[in-house]
Amino acid sequence: xxxxxxxxxxxxxxxxxxxxxxxxxxxxxxxxxxxxxxxxxxxxxxxxxxxxxxxxxxxxxxxxxxxxxxxxxxxxxxxxxxxxxxxxxxxxxxxxxxxxxxxxxxxxxxxxxxxxxxxxxxxxxxxxxxxxxxxxxxxxxxxxxxxxxxxxxxxxxxxxxxxxxxxxxxxxxxx
Length: 175
Hints:
Elements: H1 2-15, H2 20-44, H3 50-53, H4 61-65, H5 68-71, H6 75-89, H7 93-102, H8 106-117, H9 121-149, H10 153-158, H11 171-174
Helix pairs in contact: 1-2, 6-9, 7-8, 7-9
């Protein structure tokens, strides 16, 4: 799924070469997607040598947030990607904790991070995947709010199929 997104963003960059501002944002998205692809490939390896790859695939939260700019253009692919993330990581003990952290206050989050989600490359990777799910949901919610503000109820309703309550966003945001 990530490779499909990389291909589509690359194609879009080639089509829009005259627009440097848009391409710089797309370039950031492309770098994040390539990092996510590397993380996914690393997870598929049976034996991972963390001494050589530790930190090499570090993806920052701000970088993941940049993906929001393309979520609406590729909603179906992002939805399938998030569903795959959910299935693959649902059994991971720290995954639920990391999703909970995303919706807690800053102080609580710092305390929880020290205890559960910092230090291990695997846990950092889980955080990246949880951030992707969260940011995809937030992009869809923002789009729905915009459609409603414009009076386009049907357009907002069309986005409901992309919403999932267990992807790290507070339930109040869905109201």
